[in-house]
Design goal:
six-stranded antiparallel beta sheet, four-stranded antiparallel beta sheet, globular
Length: 244
């Protein structure tokens, strides 16, 4: 019969001569942390009409600065040609949704449509979304190194300068639209004596100058939006693009 001391000695001997057995301990598990991909931006068709108020008393009660400033047209994105397939691509007049509104304005005794344009674009965050060129500035003094690219106006009334910038963007889950336009016109009773002629001659020179519209607001897709100031305004329609 083996004594307890002998059993202890045999156990110690076996541990000394046999290789240790590694225990398979699974590594600690961590929850999956794969980031969700950023969803692709939604695409929209943007269409607007710029029109003028023809009421001779429009703006009569306003004080208009002689130099209202100008939109940063040269820094804005020029629209891409029709059928180019690129973002900010001009849409052909056949796809216009506001053609009947243009006709109503054209036959109105109170308003005159000046410019109609439509393009398609992705709606991205307002901090990153670029402005788009609307119309073309007068060719008086283009910025150095720039040229007057084709206007973002598919329809425009001749002889009525109007140009500026527009931006469709997102603010959280909402759509946002910024406008900065200038239009040249004559406000009510805005006539001044011609200093080169004697006062008795009765000659007057119309005060023809630029007037500015700067507005930004949250909008709803599929609804007609209206931006205005006393002398001119804008009809805007933004709809989900079927081409994307």
């Amino acid at each position: 019969m083996k004594t307890p001391r002998l059993l202890s000695w045999l156990a110690a001997l076996l541990l000394a001569i046999l290789p240790p057995v590694a225990l398979a301990v699974p590594p600690p598990t961590t929850p999956a942390t794969s980031a969700s991909p950023t969803p692709a931006p939604n695409w929209y068709d943007v269409e607007l009409i710029v029109f003028r108020n023809t009421d001779p008393n429009a703006g009569a009660l306003e004080t208009w600065p002689p130099h209202p400033g100008t939109p940063d047209w040269y820094s804005a994105v020029p629209p891409n040609p029709v059928d180019s397939g690129l973002p900010y691509m001009l849409l052909p007049s056949s796809s216009f949704r506001l053609s009947s509104d243009w006709q109503k304005l054209a036959h109105s005794s109170e308003y005159q449509p000046l410019l109609q344009v439509a393009w398609t674009q992705p709606a991205i965050d307002r901090a990153s979304a670029p402005f788009v060129r609307i119309g073309v500035p007068p060719p008086a003094a283009p910025a150095a190194g720039t040229s007057l690219a084709p206007a973002a106006a598919t329809s425009a009334a001749p002889g009525t300068p109007v140009y500026g910038t527009a931006r469709l963007s997102t603010t959280g889950p909402y759509l946002h639209f910024d406008l900065d336009l200038v239009c040249r016109g004559t406000p009510a009773k805005a006539s001044i004596p011609d200093a080169s002629q004697p006062p008795a001659s009765g000659n007057v020179t119309p005060l023809l100058q630029w007037y500015r519209l700067t507005q930004d607001r949250r909008i709803d897709a599929g609804k007609l939006n209206y931006f205005d100031q006393p002398l001119f305004g804008v009809l805007l329609l933004v709809t989900p693009s079927k081409g994307q």
